[in-house]
Amino acid sequence: MMEIRTPKTHKAKRVLEKRAPKLVENGKRTLILHGTKTSATLSSVLMELYRLKKGGAIKYSRRNENIRPFESGGETSLEFFSQKTDCSIFAYGSHTKKRPDNLVLGRMYDHHVYDLIEVGIENFKSLLSFSYDKKIAPHEGSKPFICFTGEGFENVPELKQLKEVLTDLFRGEVVDNLNLTGLDRAYICSAVSPTKVFLTHCAIKLKKSGTIVPRIELVEVGPSMDLVIRRNRLPNEGLRKEAMKSSKDKPKKKVKNVDQDDVLGKRGRIFIPEQEVGKTPLPDKSKGVKRERREGKLKKKNKEEGSASKKHKKSE
């Protein structure tokens, strides 16, 4: 029987809870790996991809001979690294005579390979080959714009898959609201042909337009490259349905000082500051107090009238 290991420390328990499935998942992290042999161009591509994803990526510099994503049994080491690092996207680079400057992009589901797409790198330009004002350089961890231009991204199945993978690769953590000043970068993907995509990285420069919405200018800061599609593997229908399942129950925000009881129902706690009853002045506007005052005035008036009549009789 397979041994089930339970966490023995609080730290291990927190790590397992962090990796457990959630209704709202965390941002997808990227695993960057080298193959048996990599060229200088491909090493630069992997390094600059790591810089673009800094804070949301893990890079291993050792060569991995056992990883062959498209072959049966060749994804075992890949799935092991995915489970070890808790990464759901990977980029694997290799260089051979048959497939030079080869980059495999893929997604994982439950630490198993979900889908794969293989591209060749051509016309690569690194960050150092671009000259621009360093003041407009994108900040680390900023939210990007992702623009896909070309009909191929809607009609060609390979380009549609590449669009999904690139979106998951670059979009970062999903958020509800965005600050316009925090958007300082854009990824432009142009479908040159059914098998070729031009990818470039630009900085966003906001300028005055005379209205509330500023005018946007794009400054190419690199890297840029051509992605030539070679091979791809789509997920099977059963795996796709399982991965696309979503819970109807939305996470509820915890309301402070409110509890739910099976018997009593919804209960709330109210905190009242200490009351100084002895120092609190009593109001004089009650009807009972007014009636007592009225009766007291009448009694006083009657007494005065009685004493006046007695004096009048004695004087007679």
Automatic annotation (TrEMBL):
Keywords, comma-separated and alphabetical: Nucleus
Domain Brix: 28-238
One Pfam family matching this protein: Brix
UniProt keyword tRNA-binding present: no
GO cellular component annotations of the record: nucleolus
Region of interest (Disordered), ranges: 238-316
Subcellular location: Nucleus, Nucleolus
Sample GO molecular function, one term: rRNA binding
Any GO BP annotation: ribosomal large subunit assembly
Basic and acidic residues: bias regions: 238-249, 256-265, 282-295
InterPro entries tied to this protein: Brix, Rpf2
This protein's record includes keyword Nucleus: yes
Family: Belongs to the RPF2 family.
Protein name per UniProt: Ribosome production factor 2 homolog
Name of the gene this protein is made from: BnaCnng19390D
